[in-house]
């Protein structure tokens, strides 16, 4: 990955590199020669205690998807707006939005939060836009140079947050010149009051949501785009019929309506987040050679630590069968939440062993 703040550029499609992702457990199992079932995968930030799948009738698998089922109403109730388009995971909207922007306005100058989910940058580059990485602290000063601003709130992997007042101000600035503010809220379900979704979506404001992280249903591939009517219509035409399979629609409808589970999940995730922060603070407290101002930041679904020996720590944890996500340019590790007491104990023990070994090397 490049450093944030590099000049915007339009790259030929052949030079646009597909990003890497977490969750490559099979590759890790082969590399470290540890059987797949012995791994603890903390690399993705997905709720390890996700919504429980109920029994589903076989007939559901035999029916073509119907857009007039209960999914959109359930989503409108959960998110607080009916101005939405269901998509096959927010990834489908991430892929199509740069194409739609190109159709409406041609090549645009786009600022993308960095570090961040690399698929945003990839698809804006792939569709011929001038794209520049922006660190969070650069946005206020540099925003006037861009037609579109693409954010993740809270940000993955940095856990940086943007408050609603700041986002509203940035939206007004870009919308005044025909621009867009795109906000990926994939990790915001634990604090829904911070969402920028509106009952009537303002022009130039686009919000993406997904059932993958909070609900732990990444395999369903269900998400939603919230935007004004023009963008919703163009996206609907672009993705066509049957984007989301019937079983996925059926299950998503019920997960979105399960308010009791949602309340319990928010409580459990918050206590687990706090527990993981404490565990990492204690494990890394005496580690030599840490970066000045070493940072531990968290969302409701993951904790990110920045240390100068991040690669070595990730390697030592992997040798213990624990997969975390390493972000090389930022010397950071992202830890998802353990799902049970066995995983918590194994992580604590592995962190103790890994940091002790690193301390001995550096003494």
TrEMBL record:
Catalytic activity: O-phospho-L-threonine + H(+) = (R)-1-aminopropan-2-yl phosphate + CO2
EC numbers, comma separated: 4.1.1.81
Single biological process term from Gene Ontology: cobalamin biosynthetic process
One Pfam family per UniProt: Aminotran_1_2
Entry GO MF terms: pyridoxal phosphate binding; threonine-phosphate decarboxylase activity
Gene3D superfamilies in the record: Aspartate Aminotransferase, domain 1 (3.90.1150.10), Type I PLP-dependent aspartate aminotransferase-like (Major domain) (3.40.640.10)
CDD domains named in the record: AAT_like
Record pathway: Cofactor biosynthesis; adenosylcobalamin biosynthesis
Cofactor: pyridoxal 5'-phosphate
Residue ranges of every copy of the Aminotransferase class I/classII large domain listed in the record: 57-350
Keywords: Cobalamin biosynthesis, Lyase, Pyridoxal phosphate
Entry keyword Cytoplasm: no
Keyword Lyase: yes
Protein function: Decarboxylates L-threonine-O-3-phosphate to yield (R)-1-amino-2-propanol O-2-phosphate, the precursor for the linkage between the nucleotide loop and the corrin ring in cobalamin.
Name this protein carries in UniProt: threonine-phosphate decarboxylase
